[in-house]
Amino acid sequence: MTHFDSRMLAEGLALGGLFAVIAAWGVVGAALIG
Asked: Transmembrane stretches, by residue range (predicted)?
């Protein structure tokens, strides 16, 4: 795996983690409101 590929993978994991956190907070917020 080249450096470019590993960087793309790292960025993908970072974005995936960010979206997972946002989704988790959305579920928590919906549960508290609903």
From this structure: 12-33
